[in-house]
Amino acid sequence: MDLASLLQISLYLSMLTFYLGVLIYALPIPITGLKKWGPRLISDAFYVAALSLAFYTILNAASYIASALGANWIAYYGFITGQLTGQLSMIFGLTSITKLVNPRFAPIVSKIVSTLVGKLMVAVYVTTFMYVLGLVIQKSYAALAALGIALMAIPFRIARGAGAFLLSFALVFYVALPLYPHFFSFIILPPQNNGVQMLETVTYIGHSIPLQSSTGSNLVEMQIPVAPGNPPDPIYKIISFIARLVYAVVIGAALYLTLLISISVGLARALGGFGRLRVI
Amino acid sequence: MDLVTLIKTFIDKAVVISWFLFLLTWIIGWAIKGSPIPIGKARRVGQGLIEDAVWGAFWIAVGSSIFWLIYYIASLLSTSFPQPPKPQLPS
Fold it and tell me: Which of A8, A11, A15, A17 to mutate to probe the B interface, most B CBs <10 Å?
């Protein structure tokens, strides 16, 4: 079913709603509760007909607002794929370390590495989800919006709430999801390293771990700090960086999606007429 | 039968039933209003039925015109809407 069919169905459903409203108006049954549905259905029908006929205007308005706010899907995908590449590279690098390290320290290093890789995998899942969500929204936001209007057009307000949510979800995410890189850079990564210090309580180990290649030659020797307060070591820096990255990716995505869903719910209430901001 | 044809059939049936109901309600309303029952409430019910029937007939009559008007306004809006600005990436 294509977009035009969905819009046609919603238009005819709105007409059906209108004539059902008229039918209830003309019923010879003087029950106030029943009669109230007459004008209600008639106004619903006009509202949904206006929405379905002005569908492309609404989409143009959404594109206009998105462009005015600086939303760019190419930049969004670039940001997400950049994140994903970084995370996968880190996973690859960390798993390579276990093969390069001296066999004496292999168990402890592999334990640390597996923990870090596990955390990084969470970030990979979240980033992949954001990528897929972007693809779904960009490719099918018009279809989702049309489906929302078609659901709103079902007589007697059966699926009005769901339809209004679907419509507002499609519009809000189409406008605001490409702005995620801006949100990420402004909120999660403030300038001058004033970001969240999430790994202050890292466990320190008083050993030096010589990192060796498979041939046995020392590549680099890393000194792990023995007490808090010392200048950060390379391993501490790596662990701290990975932990911050994972928290930033997960919390950033969760915050942004929560924000967008909240806006969608508010818009759905306004469009569907369930809140105080009632359009019709 | 596809969905659009099914909905059109329902619309046609709803229109026909609405006209019949308008006539029926109008007749019942006048019958109640004109009946020799000295109860004010019954007469008010009759008056209400007549008003509802007339409103129903009005909406059936002007319904298609209002849908056309909505279509006209929507098409006007869609043609008058400006093109969105091109996003400028920071250099």
Answer: A15
Phi then psi for residue A44, to 5 deg, are -60, -40
ipTM exceeding the 0.90 mark: no
More confident residue, A159 or A107: A159
Looking at the complex, does the CB of residue B6 fall below 8 Å from at least one CB of chain A? no
Residue from B2, B8, B11, B47 to probe the interface with A (highest A Cβ count within 10 Å): B11
| Domain range enclosing B29 | 14-64
Position B70 in a domain = no
Question: What are A223-247's pLDDT values in tens digits?
Answer: 444 455 555 577 777 788 888 888 8
Query: Residue A236: in which H helix or E strand, if any?
Result: helix A234-272
Binned at pLDDT 50, 70 and 90, residue A138 comes out as very high
B59 in a domain, yes or no? Answer: yes
Q: Is residue B79 part of a domain?
A: no
Q: How far apart, in whole angstroms, are the C-alpha atoms of residue A17 and residue A23?
A: 10
Nearest to B87 among A20, A30, A71 (CB): A71
Q: What's the pLDDT band for A76 if we cut at 50, 70, 90?
A: very high
**In terms of CA atoms, which chain A residue is nearest residue B16?**
A23
Beta strands in A53-180 (DSSP E): none
Give me the residue spans of the domains in chain A: 3-272
A 67-106 residues with CB < 8 A to B? 67-68, 70-72, 75
